[in-house]
């Protein structure tokens, strides 16, 4: 089972002719509002990949729709709490090439307490997985609690924070980064991925595929990307992570779990939106990737 300490956002997505420059006012050519947040995206992806997922998070009084939507997608919501601040939201600009820029308001995501986290993880079992990102509070407490309880700790270190990574690297069993975050980590710490005190590091490389650094096995593997026609990269990395963790939770080895996750990511970038359009396992298994 996967326990995901993660953000829940309303995603306001604007299609624009190009990403805004400083001081520029830009007219959007389209607008959508849907469920998002890195945490919610990963929970939905893992659930759609046939994993059992318990989301640990918070919404405001305005966020009942988000909790209902997660439940509809197969995510267990009994540890999503209603708190005083408004539900978090993201304003997303997406250009015709599918690149994006995002402004986040954390809101309820920053009202999660250690008591909420501890109460949820008290129900976990040894061998379960704790998944975390950097859009909530309480990661250090959650990781230490999970380690004590015998859970595996997976850390998708976004939005990137070098200090947070340094504080959790010795606890995490799996670290997931994109190419930019990996470069930022090297610049901030001077450590190569192979020098980190983490058993496994997975780096997504966009159209260039993925790299797996196993510090436990002392190997590095690279994987080519599947063909894709990108229209919106928003949520693709979260989809990859959710599918990766679901595969590992179901007993796949790392190579097979990465392959499944890359297939999911290739389908995801061809869609506009975030959690609401994440592909399910049947779509991926039925799709001909050429």
From TrEMBL:
Requires a divalent cation, most likely magnesium in vivo, as an electrophilic catalyst to aid phosphoryl group transfer. It is the chelate of the metal and the nucleotide that is the actual substrate. InterPro entries: PfkB_dom, Ribo/fructo_kinase, Ribokinase, Ribokinase-like. Its cofactor is Mg(2+). Its EC number is 2.7.1.15. One of its GO terms (biological process) is D-ribose catabolic process. It comes from the Bacteria. The active site is at 238 (proton acceptor). Substrate binds at residues 9-11, 37-41, 135, 238. K(+) binds at residues 232, 234, 268, 271, 273. It is found in: Cytoplasm. Keywords: ATP-binding, Carbohydrate metabolism, Cytoplasm, Kinase, Magnesium, Metal-binding, Nucleotide-binding, Potassium, Transferase. SUPFAM superfamilies: Ribokinase-like (SSF53613). ATP binds at residues 178, 204-209, 237-238. Activated by a monovalent cation that binds near, but not in, the active site. The most likely occupant of the site in vivo is potassium. Ion binding induces a conformational change that may alter substrate affinity. One of its GO terms (cellular component) is cytoplasm. The keyword ATP-binding applies. It catalyses: D-ribose + ATP = D-ribose 5-phosphate + ADP + H(+). Residues 5-279 form the Carbohydrate kinase PfkB domain. Transmembrane segments: none annotated. Belongs to the carbohydrate kinase PfkB family. Ribokinase subfamily. Homodimer. This is Ribokinase. It comes from Sulfitobacter mediterraneus. The gene is rbsK.
């Amino acid at each position: 089972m996967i326990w995901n300490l993660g953000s829940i956002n309303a995603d306001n997505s604007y299609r624009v002719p190009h990403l805004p420059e400083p001081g520029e006012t830009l007219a959007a050519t389209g607008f959508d509002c849907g469920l998002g947040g890195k945490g919610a995206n990963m929970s939905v992806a893992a659930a759609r990949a046939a994993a059992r997922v318990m989301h640990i998070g918070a919404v405001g009084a305005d966020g009942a729709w988000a909790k209902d939507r997660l439940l509809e997608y197969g995510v267990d919501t009994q540890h999503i709490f209603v708190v005083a601040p408004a539900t978090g939201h993201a304003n997303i600009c997406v250009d015709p090439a599918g690149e994006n820029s995002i402004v986040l308001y954390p809101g309820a995501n920053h009202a999660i307490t250690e008591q909420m986290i501890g109460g949820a993880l008290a129900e976990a079992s040894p061998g379960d997985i704790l998944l975390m990102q950097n859009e909530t509070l309480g990661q250090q407490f959650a990781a230490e609690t999970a380690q004590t309880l015998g859970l595996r700790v997976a850390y998708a270190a976004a939005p990137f924070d070098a200090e947070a990574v340094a504080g959790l690297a010795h606890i995490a069993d799996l670290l997931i980064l994109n190419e930019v975050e990996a470069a930022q980590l090297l610049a901030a710490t001077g450590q190569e991925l192979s020098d980190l005190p983490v058993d496994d590091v997975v780096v997504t490389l966009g159209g260039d595929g993925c790299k797996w650094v196993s510090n436990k096995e002392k190997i590095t593997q690279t994987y080519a990307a599947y063909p894709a026609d990108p229209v919106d990269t928003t949520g693709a990395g979260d989809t990859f992570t959710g599918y990766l963790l679901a595969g590992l939770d179901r007993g796949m080895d790392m190579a097979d779990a990465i392959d499944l996750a890359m297939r999911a990511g290739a389908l995801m970038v061809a869609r506009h939106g975030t959690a609401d359009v994440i592909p399910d396992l049947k779509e991926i298994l039925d799709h001909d990737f050429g």
